[in-house]
C-alpha cells in the first residue's frame, strides 16, 4: 500500500486474525516496525496510528514494541489472546458432512498487482482496502458461543485452496469447493483474466498440484483466483450441516459477504476437489 495509514491498518488486521481463527479474543499487541532512517517521521507515525486504531477496534491494547533499521519498511504485530479451553478452534478438525463458510471475498493478490499498475478504479481500490482492513473479530464474535463450529482457519498467503488442504490434515476426508459460490472482490475476475496474477499464486499451484483436483473446463481466471495469495483474508469455517443455517444467519449480521462455498466428504483421490 502507498498510503501509510492504510498499510498500518491492514498489517494489524492481518496480524490479529490468527487469534480469532482459533476462537480466541485478542488482548495484548506488541508493535514490530522496521524502517530506513530516511523515512519521514510522519509516515512512521501514520503506520503506527493505523495499527493502533485497528488494535483499539479489536479491543486489544498496544503495550510497546520494537523498531529496527531496515531498507524496506515492514510492520506487524505480535498478538496475545485468550480462549476458553473448551472453545479452541483448530484448523484440521473438520468432520464428514460439514459445510464450509468463507467470510470474505477473494482477490486481494490480483488486485494489489493491478493497483501497482494504476489500473484500479476508485471504487475497486476502496473495496480492496476496506476488505483487507476489515477485522475478522466480528465474524469470530458472532459464532463464538454457537454449537457446531468444528474447525477454522484464516485464508492468507497460501490461498483458499492451500488453506482448504491444511484443513484436511490427516483426517482422510475431502474438502469440496464449489467454484461458482466463491465470492470475489469487484474487478478481481477482470484483472485475473488479464493475467495480473502474483508470483506467489504460481508457487501455490506448484505446491498443491498433486493435492487438488480441478475440472478441465474451469475458467483460467477462476483457477488463478482460487490459488491467489490473500492479505488479511477471511475466516474459513467448517460447521455441522444441521447448524449451518443458524451460523450463516449470525455471520450475515456480522460481516458483509459470508458465503457457503463447499462441504466435506469422505476419502477420495485428492484431499481437495474443485467443482
UniProtKB/TrEMBL annotation:
Domain PurM-like C-terminal: 95-268
Organism, scientific name: Enterocloster clostridioformis
Lipid biosynthesis is among the record's keywords: no
Pfam families, per database record: AIRS, AIRS_C
EC number of this enzyme: 2.7.9.3
Record protein name field: Selenide, water dikinase
Keyword Transferase found: yes
InterPro entries per record: PurM-like_C_dom, PurM-like_C_sf, PurM-like_N, PurM-like_N_sf, SPS/SelD
Record-level GO cellular component terms: cytoplasm
Gene that specifies this protein: selD
Biological process annotations from GO: selenocysteine biosynthetic process
One of the record's GO molecular function terms: ATP binding
Domain PurM-like N-terminal positions: 2-83
Keyword list, A-Z: ATP-binding, Kinase, Nucleotide-binding, Selenium, Transferase
Amino acid at each position: 500500500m502507498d498510503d501509510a495509514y492504510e498499510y498500518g491498518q491492514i498489517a494489524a488486521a492481518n496480524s490479529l486474525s490468527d487469534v480469532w481463527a482459533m476462537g480466541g479474543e485478542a488482548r495484548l499487541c506488541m508493535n514490530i516496525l522496521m524502517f530506513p532512517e530516511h523515512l519521514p517521521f510522519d509516515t512512521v507515525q501514520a503506520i503506527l496510528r493505523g495499527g493502533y486504531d485497528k488494535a483499539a477496534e479489536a479491543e486489544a491494547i498496544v503495550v510497546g514494541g520494537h523498531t529496527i533499521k531496515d531498507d524496506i519498511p515492514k510492520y506487524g504485530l505480535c498478538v496475545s489472546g485468550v480462549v476458553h479451553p473448551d472453545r479452541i478452534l483448530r484448523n484440521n478438525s473438520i468432520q464428514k458432512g460439514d459445510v464450509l463458510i468463507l467470510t470474505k471475498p477473494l482477490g486481494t493478490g490480483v488486485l494489489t498487482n493491478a493497483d501497482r499498475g494504476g489500473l484500479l478504479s476508485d471504487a475497486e481500490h476502496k473495496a480492496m482496502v476496506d476488505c483487507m482492513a476489515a477485522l475478522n473479530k466480528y465474524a469470530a464474535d458472532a459464532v463464538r458461543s454457537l454449537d457446531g463450529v468444528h474447525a477454522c482457519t484464516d485464508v492468507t498467503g497460501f490461498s483458499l485452496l492451500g488453506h482448504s488442504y491444511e484443513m484436511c490434515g490427516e483426517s482422510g476426508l475431502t474438502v469440496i469447493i464449489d467454484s461458482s459460490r466463491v465470492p470475489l472482490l469487484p474487478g478481481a475476475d477482470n484483472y485475473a483474466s488479464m493475467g495480473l496474477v502474483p508470483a506467489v499464486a504460481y508457487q501455490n499451484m506448484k505446491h498443491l498440484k498433486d493435492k487438488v483436483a480441478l475440472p478441465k473446463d474451469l475458467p483460467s481466471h477462476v483457477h488463478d483466483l482460487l490459488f491467489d495469495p490473500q492479505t488479511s483474508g477471511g475466516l474459513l469455517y467448517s460447521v455441522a450441516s444441521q447448524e449451518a443455517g443458524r451460523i450463516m444467519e449470525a455471520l450475515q449480521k456480522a460481516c458483509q459477504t459470508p458465503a457457503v462455498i463447499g462441504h466435506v466428504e469422505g476419502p477420495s483421490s485428492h484431499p481437495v476437489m474443485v467443482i
